[in-house]
Amino acid sequence: METRKRNTIRELIANAPDLAPFENIIDQLFSEFYSRDSIIIIDSRRKSSYLCQTPFNSKERNFELFIGVRDRMVQLDILWSIFHEYGHLIQRRPLDEELKEGTMAKYLRETDAWHKAETKASEFDILNPHFDEFKRYRAACQASYRIDE
Q1: Cα separation of 21 and 34, whole Å?
Q2: Which of 90, 97, 45, 94 is CA-nearest to residue 72?
């Protein structure tokens, strides 16, 4: 696992060199994902990141984390998106309503993931000067969640 994690971190930083000062944080976050048997994929075709459950989920929660690196004008946003997906990683299994786009349940689940992301990010003193950027990115993402109900 350690070799796989190291290679994935190298690939991420090769695609987003501005993240190099945060390699230790990325290492810790990736350890959390790998400890839950996740697969991490650096995706140069996607602009956003997402966490999905694998088809092998009948009893265990297995995940694939796709980290989108395409056209990221602010590379630190990639780190914020990893923190957000970490928030989903530690959430309980979603209810059916929480999986439906446009529902209040889905919106509340996304908001909870951002709260968990902020809590985790606040553990790292090196990120303190960047919290305004975190809040900007979180606000932009939250503004994109629609509620159709």
Answers
A1: 21
A2: 45
**DSSP β-bridge partners for residue 67:** 42
- Give me the tens of pLDDT residue by residue for the chain, a chain 149 residues long: 789 999 999 999 999 999 999 999 999 999 999 998 889 999 999 888 988 875 555 555 678 899 999 988 899 999 999 999 999 999 998 888 988 889 999 999 999 999 999 999 999 999 999 999 999 999 999 999 888 85
Judge whether 92 and 112 are in contact, CB under 8 Å.
Answer: no
Dihedral sign from CA coordinates of 113, 115, 120, 121 = positive
In angstroms and rounded to an integer, the radius of gyration of the C-alpha atoms of the chain is 15
Burial class (CB in 10 A: 0-12, 13-18, 19+), 91: middle
